[in-house]
Every structure is written in C-alpha cells, then in structure tokens.
C-alpha cells in the first residue's frame, strides 16, 4: 500500500492590482484572480512577459541560425547532397519524440529529396537494438548506397558508431537534445540546444523541435523548392514536445501553441480532407479533438509509444503520421490502438505484481526500491516504475530477467522511454537516454530494466556510482535504463540504498502532492476552466494547476471496468462521482482513474484535483489526484446503527417465527445490494431515523437479511428479456420497469443496458405514463452492432452477479467498518 502522502500548498504572493487587471483582459467572463495568482507564482510578473506567454503572436521565436556554425555546416552538407543527388538516411528513435522527429524530417527533407529513393528512414527496434546508432544498422544503410545520415532525438554520445560510419564513407549530421559528449564528435554537424546556456530560449527544445529547426533553416536557404508550407509540420512538433515532457518555455511553448492550433484545425476537416488522417483517426479512437495538450499527453503520446513497447518495431508509425492515404492510415491507427490496449493490460498486470512484491518490503528502511521478476516484459517497466516512484516517493528500479542470457551487448539500454501514459511519469522525464556508459562487452545472464526517480534525487549519478556492477547504463537525472548480471542484483540493491541513505542524511523520502490553489465546489466550472486554460500548454516548469478542495464529500459514486476499443478484455478501471461542499447546492462531476468507488472516503474529506473538459461527454469535470479524510471534519456523536446479520437464513426477518434474542426495531434490507452505495443509503436512512427521533433509548438496528442469490446464466437472462419483449410486442401490452425487473431479476441500471441492446435488434421502447410500450421491427443491417450491444449487456449481468455474490459473503466486520467511517 502507498505511504501516507504529504500535501503541500504553493505559497501564494498576492499579485498587484495592475497585474490582475491585465490578466482580466484575457478572461472577460471572470475576474481573472486565480489565473493572475498562478501566473504571478510562476514568475510572469510584467506586461511584456504576460502578453508573450498568453499570445503566441506576440512572441518572437529564435532563428534556426542561432545554432551558429553548426547549423551552417549542416545546411551546407544538405545542400551538397541536394546538388549531387546523394542518398540520405534519417536515423530516428522509437518513442513519441523520436517518431515525430523522424516524421518531421521525412516530410520536411522530403520536400528536397525524393522519398523512398533518395530519402529513407531507420527506426531501431526497441526490444532488440534499444536507443542510438548501432553498427549493424549503419552497415545496412551503407549497402543501400546512403552517403549521409541525419539523426534525430539521438546520436550525441554515439562517438564510436559515428567513427565507424565515417570509415564506411557516411557523413553524419546529429540533431539531438540529450547530454553532450565530452568532445565534439567527428560529424558533419551537431545541432544540440545543450550547447546554449540554460536561460536561452532554445535550450529546452526536444528532439522533434531540433529537427524542425533544421528543416526551417533548409527552407530559408532553399526558399523556392518546397511545395508545402513549413507550418504544416507544427502539429507533429507539438505532439513530440508535449509527449516528451520537456519544459514548455521559450520556443518550446511557442511551437506547442502553434502546433496545437494546427492540430485542431486539421481535425475539424472531414477525414478525406485532412493533411494527417492518421493523427485524426488516433484522436477519434481516444475520443479527443486535438485542442488540448492533454489530448496529446493522455491520447496520442501513449499510443505512439505503445507500439515499440509491445512490438519492438515502430517504423510504421512514421507512415501513420505522414501518409495521406485514409484507408491505410485507418488500418495503421487500429494496429496502434491495439498495441496501446495491450500495453495497458501488461502495465496493469505488472503493476499488480509489483504491488504484491512491495508488501514484502519494509519501506521505512528502503531508500531505493529494486525489484526483479523473470516474467516482466521490459517494454512497460519504465511506466510501472514511474507509478511506483510517485506513490512511494522513492526512486524505483524494476528489472526483468525474461530471456536472460539472450541479450547482446549492442545498443543502449532503455532510458526514459515515451511519455504521456497517465500516472506513469517521473518529473523531468525526457524521452530517450541522455547519455550512455558502456561497461562490458557481454554477459551470460543479464537482468534488464528501467529506473525512475522523484523528489529531486539525481538517479543518473546515483546509478552511475555503481557502474562497476553494471553491464550497461544510460539515462538522465529522472529516468534511466540499465542491465546487469543477475548475480549482481543483491549487491547492487544494497549498495545503491546505502549510497542514497548517506546522501539524504536525516531527510525522509515521502510521496508529496502539491496544490496550487484552494477553491470550492462553487468555483468549479466553465469560468474557472477558461481562466486556467490561459496557462496551457502546461508541462515541466508550468504544471497543470492542482486545486485543493476542502471539507467536501462524494455522492452517486460508481465505477466500471474500462475495456479495449473492441471490448474484448478488461484493461483498467475508473471511478466516477459527484463532489459537493457547503459552498453550493449543486454537485460537480468528477472521475478517479485507476480506482474503485469504494476507495473514496465516506463523509467529509479534502481532495486535490485538476479541472478538465471532457470532449466526449461535453462537460466540465474534475480529475481526482489525491484524497484523504478531512482533518477538520468533526466525528459524529450520533450512535451508529446496530447491524444484525440475518443473511442466508432459512426464513427472512419479516416472516413470523424468526427467533431473535432481541427486538428488531430498525430497518430490514432483503434485496441483495450490487454496490456499497446501496448499503450506505440504508445506513444513512437508519441514522436519519435516529436523528429525527427524540428520546429514543434503544440503539437503531439495521438487519441485513438477503439470501445468497440463485443466479440464472447471463445468456438465459438475455433470452428471457428478448422473449418478454417479443410477447409484449405481439400482444400490444404495457409493462412497468418494476415488473420487468422482478421478472428478469436484474438491477435497473443493467436493464437500461438490455433495453439499448433490444433497440439494435429492431425493438422500439417508448414510455407511456409510468409504463413502457415495446414494438418490434426486425433489422438485419444492425446485426454487428447488436452483437456488441448484447455483449455489453451480458458483461453488465456478470458484473452485477459477481457483486451480489460478494455481498452475500462479505464479512459483517467489513460492513461495520464501512458504517463506522460514515460521518455524514
């Protein structure tokens, strides 16, 4: 179980009135106070900064030739290739930043070099080659007649491989954003923003943004060649920037703002008219519209990253992002969606296994979590490690010995991987490895894995100190990849824990959640959303605002298992609810990803959440980040009901002859509940009776008297429902919902799912007063949709039956515990 989180609230310095009024110009529907507080907190403190931050048209981007001599060298070499019609290879990377960078160069350089003849691209296989250049790939490109390699999002530290390419007669232009080599490698040019001081507006560029700057310089140097405008590439730049979690300041923010605008404009077009039908189809599959940074970080980014995590080879993703063949793009988008569904399933399985192993650790004496398993797929270990690091507040290293002894020494270990998977990222995670340290040439039994950090612990330096125990290692301060001999794992674990304990001293590692603003439920909604939207796109250095809501409570909570896009397998869960507090008579909707509704506290609590707009449901809602029982909510002095367990008795409590040793003076529940909310409702009714009855000497009683359900098979229930519908249609009789529920033995919510399925079979269900009229006009054309609808009904019945089985057997102590926490 995760440790108790430490909650902090950002210190707020009240902005001056002139600044509030300046912000209000951009928020005409509200007073702009919250946005002003956030902007002031985050260092936006003069009019010029404010204007450039909010309005990208007021920002002056840097020239690509700010890179100086290196950019001039790169353009000169590309112009030479253009004039002599040389063959060029783009060497990319397999995460979202690398894929989009490859796509930008493929589309951009493709304006000057014929694609598939003069210009080709190469994406390493994540599971076989890992990040960076490798000699075998260079050999293949040389055999194909390539004379120039242009890297993107990789290559800065591949000195040996660059020398090898030079020996084969290939020049290399490196475009990258990771750690610089100690000395300039023997390349035609190296374009890397890390050469700039940290304050420079180009310093934080990701791999895709650096690739864009190269194309921008080529457009300016050969102005009359390209057929398509440079701005057509900006949507891809935005995807890579946001998915890679770079700091969105300077040109990064400007490019992301411009790119999101292009992305949204293209998505509004009919599928056949889109410049990027593949991107449009991916957005449709994840129910996004492309107008929010979260559409990328929670939609496009994870899907692009999933392909290499699951399949290894992500080369087709470049075609998905750049092709204009709608049919082909739809096919590739579906393959990508399936890979993401598989990724979620694997991630869920591994996370459950890691959680089980965590129960065997004493976190009070553990500074760095190191866990291993022979069955864990390497492709999702970084994601799970990020989740565990966030939950525990400790750097986490997960290792897989799957296929141990079969890995070669070639390539670089997995670094930060892609970003965007919800709840899976350590702060500062930035795509692929920033540096690589080769340590040995071979190892018979290797464990391979990923590491993620939190709490400003420099993971790269921490692991590098144990280089003598490692086979290979590469990464940056918050994310890394490594491999080591299986026999070295215990020694490595002990050493890295001792090292971090010594460096921390008396500091305690605690999972921390930080809130930016304190608001009420009455504040939530469109006006506040539009205020906070001024800060978008959010990212490192400008995180999504976290809202603290105090002394609130939850109502109408429910959860459901999310399924993959074909409805074949349960992948993950989410809880939905309404939140209330004393500030408003209205509730506000919300959801909690990865949690069941029973995990929501009963009674008054505090929570930290993000305000969002659900494009699919067309509503404003909160996304719960953390929740805990309210520290200032007084415990009720009302005596709780005395719960009598009469379940599975031969006679119900209402029948005569039931021999009780005490009088039954309260309420009796004979219908087996299907969720905790049903039971809580009865508990609250019992409390309400106690509160409204003055002078009551006896403690209120609540008898739970349902019997173990005798369920029919779900298929039989469906056939019964169809049979009743046909009979009612034939006889033209009316029926009430209560009669249907009693006859079929299901809940009202599940009946609604069944009615929807009936409609696909040609049934029409109409309301007449308090009754339903059912007519039937068979329709064969909806057969496929009917099969899906029936499958959903059967799944709902199975879920309901499972819950009833649970409540037939749940220990009375659990029910009493639930009641004792209900303070409302």
Return Rg in Å. 30 Å
Fraction of residues in helices? 25-40%
Based on Cα principal axes, name the global outline. globular
Q: Low-confidence segments, ≥5 residues, pLDDT <50?
A: 405-443, 632-640, 651-664, 692-698
SS-based structural class?
alpha/beta
Helical run tally: 24
Strand order of the largest sheet: 7-8-10-12-11-9
End-to-end gap: 27 Å
Portion in strands: 15-25%
- Overall mean confidence score, pLDDT: 83
Main beta sheet: 6 strands, mixed
Counted beta strands: 25
How would you portray this structure in words?
- The protein has 824 residues and is of the alpha/beta class.
- It is built from 24 helices and 25 strands.
- β21, α19 and β22 (701-704) form a beta-alpha-beta unit.
Summary tags:
single chain, 824 residues, alpha/beta, six-stranded mixed β-sheet, five-stranded parallel β-sheet, 24 helices, 25 strands, 39% helix, globular
Short description:
The protein has 824 residues and is α/β, with parallel strands linked by helices. It is built from 24 helices and 25 strands. Helix content is 39%, strand content 18%.
